[in-house]
Specification:
The complex is a heterodimer of chains A (398) and B (366).
Chain A (H helix, E strand, L loop, with lengths): L5 H17 L1 H34 L29 H34 L4 H16 L2 H13 L8 E3 L3 E4 L2 E4 L1 E2 L3 H31 L5 H19 L6 E2 L2 E3 L2 E3 L2 E3 L1 H26 L4 H9 L4 H31 L11 H12 L2 H30 L5
Antiparallel strand pairs in A: 1-2, 2-3, 3-8, 4-5, 6-7
Helix pairs in contact in A: 3-4, 3-8, 3-11, 4-8, 5-8, 6-7, 8-10, 9-10, 10-12, 11-12
Chain B lengths: L1 H7 L12 H9 L3 H27 L8 H6 L6 H12 L7 H18 L7 H20 L15 H27 L4 H15 L3 H15 L8 H26 L3 H9 L4 H16 L1 H14 L11 H8 L9 H31 L4
Helix pairs in contact in B: 5-8, 5-15, 6-7, 8-9, 8-11, 8-14, 8-15, 9-11, 10-11, 11-13, 11-14, 12-13, 14-16
Classes of the chains: A alpha+beta (398), B mainly alpha (366).
Chain lengths: 398, 366
């Protein structure tokens, strides 16, 4: 290109500049810079306001308060704790309580949800309708209302003297749920270890068996081997340690019970509320999973003479699990998030204790940050595990 | 040989006609011995439960009684507690002699909602003026201070109207935020995408309560000294943002279902990003995810009950407070059943409507 005349040089440059300004890349970079600057400025503005307000109200900042003495008691705890312990320990008690109620809640919700979900996809029209009715009720009533309802019901139960007896295994009274429990024994720890070992071994065994089945063409169902390992190993440990059978069975005694272990009214109310609420959603997930296998596949399996159990085990179950597991885990996460309404019934979970800490120290920002970080961690860990599982079970395509 | 074997078999009769009430009963209730047993057991339990409920809730129930003693003497439900306490349950702490305003508010609200759910009214020239008019009317009724109505501050609002305001406010504010977040997450700009992802995922990862704590305890710290935002507004906005994060994921699903060809066709017509989004992409995407969006709208309604924790007087908080009355306290089951029924009616109505919309979408009516 000739650059002889100055005017033509100027116009070229202008058109070059125009070319840059009108280009897609420049524009998108420009918008993004503007957006980033705006967000940073807004963030800085809010941050400086917070600092200013906290200074004006004479509230300390930072996490130093965690090591100070909490000066409040907590009714329910899984680790030792007293009012002389630190805020940090108080929050740890809360976190463990959150994990306890969520863990038990997940088990209860899964059992309830699978039962109802299977009932909802049964051939029996009556059972189907009853299950459908349950699902519509528990899903459409706010979980807080359900928790409050159960808490009031339990509070209005008769005192231990007139407690409702549950088939000889426990009592339901206004003190909560008292159930029979095996007495603590050193073998229990080893049984737990054996259980974990059984789970790990059964995964390895399943792989080995599958490879062997593929190689020899003979069929062994890895499910039975896994079941044997998972239940057998703890049972073996129990037998080897002399089969301790001591149970602590609750009995009415004066104004309370002796023996057994008691789940507090708050715990039971929260547990019932959150797990029944979740069970409605889980039932629908299970139903959609069962329906995920097209009819044609089941008919095809029948045609080649597979027995009903084989159809369930090798045709329906693998496809159902692929549909069920991802939404099921998100229900588990939302159940543990719902446990944060514990404060309405007074169960000392993380949020409840965090709330107390917030009111005592005034350090709302730090207290709420702790709660959020804990729940975020739970969610992120679950979704990582979920992604791993999905990669494991996804349909292997070319 | 094979042929002769076949010929030796007499032709089988055609299957018996598989219809009629007896056949239907047999297929659904008594197809096998196991199923017959199951049916009998379930039917026995169901009939016993229904019989008990019929006695408790209808036959032995007390419907009107000024004195709770009448209820204690009867064996059944005490619906009289609802009759007696319906005003504090439904209207909370709102001044007693002004309750007619709340009744009017609920009527206007329901009329507006029912009208906007009818496809015949889906015209911009009708919907927008209608909503502006009814929101103004509701604001005038709730606040007062004009037209000779005494002023009522938001701190005295309560009961069903408060639940309605929280729910409607969170959906009305939440939907546009949801659309923006979903578009941001699908945007070609990495910065916008990153911000949307972080925002959506971190809010979806925490319980609603922590966000309400932020609205109540932390948000005031964000503002310069002396500036205040109404507590009800803060809480509505926080439920709205929480709702928006879930809804954004649903809308993203809808956006992902739009074939590339739609974008390319719009680009070849020289449409801008916003023209494409508004005229081509969003109308289709929102239609696809309508059913899933309703689920989150119902969830938003149930989520309004979380405000009991931060002391707002919605219908649930009001009921809990009313049930502290020692005279009527023992009839808590009836009171909570009533509140549950209110939520159930709204929730089931919404999900029934969603199913109908789904069928409209399927036949291309909308």
């Amino acid at each position: 290109m000739s650059l002889s005349s100055s005017s033509s040089r100027g116009s070229t440059r202008r058109s070059q500049i125009a070319g840059v300004v009108y280009s897609q890349a420049f524009r998108s970079a420009f918008y993004q810079v503007i957006l980033a600057i705006f967000v940073l400025l807004a963030g800085y503005y809010l941050y400086s306001n917070v600092v200013e307000n906290l200074r004006a109200q004479n509230i300390a900042t930072g996490f130093r308060f965690l090591s100070e003495v909490s000066q409040f008691e907590i009714g329910e705890r899984l680790i030792n704790y007293s009012a002389r312990d630190s805020y940090f320990r108080a929050l740890a008690v809360g976190l463990l309580n959150t994990l306890a109620v969520s863990g038990v809640g997940i088990i209860v919700a899964t059992i309830l949800g699978f039962t109802v979900g299977i009932a909802r996809s049964s051939n029996d029209l009556l059972l189907k309708k009853v299950a459908g009715f349950y699902v519509e009720i528990v899903r459409n009533i706010p979980v807080i209302l359900q928790v409050i309802f159960w808490s009031v019901v339990i509070r209005n139960l008769p005192p231990p003297r007139g407690a409702v007896e549950l088939w000889g295994a426990g009592f339901l009274s206004n003190r909560g749920l008292t159930v029979a429990m095996p007495n603590a024994d050193p073998s229990h720890v080893w049984m737990l270890v054996a259980f974990v070992a059984g789970v790990i071994l059964s995964i390895i065994a399943a792989r080995f068996i599958r490879r062997r089945n593929d190689a020899t063409g003979k069929h062994v169902d890895s499910l039975w081997v896994s079941l044997l390992l998972i239940t057998g190993l703890p049972l073996l440990v129990w037998l080897l340690s002399g089969a301790p059978l001591d149970m602590s069975i609750p009995e009415r005694k004066g104004f309370s019970f002796s023996g057994g272990s008691t789940l507090s009214p708050e715990f039971v109310a929260l547990l019932l509320g959150i797990s029944m609420y979740a069970s409605g959603f889980i039932a629908e997930i299970v139903r959609s999973g069962i329906q995920a296998t097209p009819r044609g596949q089941i008919e095809a399996a029948k045609t080649i003479g597979l027995k009903p159990w084989y159809i369930t085990r090798y045709i329906v179950l693998p496809q159902a699990l692929r549909v069920i597991v991802p939404p099921l885990t998100s229900q588990y996460v939302s159940l543990s998030k719902n446990s944060s309404i514990a404060v309405v019934v007074g169960y000392p979970d993380l949020v409840n204790i965090g709330n107390t800490v917030m009111n005592q120290t005034g350090q709302a920002v730090e207290a709420v940050t702790i709660m959020m970080v804990v729940y975020l961690t739970i969610s992120v860990v679950t979704s990582l595990v979920m992604n791993f599982y999905n990669r494991l079970v996804e349909i292997k395509e070319r | 040989m094979a042929t002769s074997e076949i010929l030796e078999h007499p032709a089988e009769l055609p299957p018996v006609l598989a219809s009629g009430p007896w056949r239907w009963m047999r297929r659904h209730f008594f197809s096998s011995i196991g199923q017959t047993l199951l049916t009998i057991v379930v039917a026995a339990i169901a009939i016993r439960t229904l019989w008990f409920l019929l006695h408790w809730a209808v036959l032995d129930a007390v419907w009107v009684a000024a004195d709770p003693q009448v209820c204690r003497d009867a064996g059944g439900a005490c619906w009289a507690v609802i009759v007696e306490k319906h005003r504090p349950i439904l209207f909370g702490m709102y001044p007693y002699d002004q309750h007619w305003r709340l009744v009017l508010m609920i009527v206007i609200y329901l009329a507006t909602v029912i009208a906007s759910l009818t496809p015949a009214c889906w015209k911009r020239s009708l919907l927008i003026p209608m909503w502006i008019a009814s929101v103004t009317a509701i604001a005038v009724l709730m606040f007062g201070g004009v037209l000779g109505l005494p002023y009522v501050p938001t701190s005295e609002w309560g009961g069903l109207p408060l639940t309605i305001i929280l729910f409607t406010g969170s959906v009305l504010f939440g939907m546009p935020i949801a659309v923006l977040l979903a578009l941001g997450r699908r945007a070609p700009l990495p910065v916008a995408r990153g911000l949307s992802v972080v925002f959506i995922e971190s809010l979806r990862g925490v319980p609603l309560i922590t966000i309400l704590f932020v609205a109540v305890n932390i948000f005031p710290l964000f503002l310069p000294a002396g500036m205040e935002v109404n507590k009800l507004l803060r809480i509505t906005l926080s439920i709205a943002v929480f709702f928006a994060c879930y809804q954004a994921e649903v809308i993203r699903g809808g956006l992902q279902a739009i074939p590339r060809g739609q974008y390319e066709a719009a680009a070849s017509l020289n449409m801008t990003y916003w023209q494409t989004t508004r005229r081509i992409i969003l109308p289709q995407a929102l239609r696809i995810c309508l059913p899933a969006m309703t689920n989150h709208i119902i969830a938003a309604m149930k989520n309004t009950s979380f405000v009991i924790i931060i002391g707002l007087f919605d219908i649930l908080t009001a009921t809990t407070a009313v049930m502290q009355d020692p005279l009527w306290r023992q009839f808590y089951i009836e009171a909570y059943l009533f509140v549950a029924l209110v939520y159930l009616v709204f929730g089931l109505a919404l999900s029934m409507y969603a199913r109908r919309v789904e069928s409209w979408v399927a036949v291309g009516r909308i």
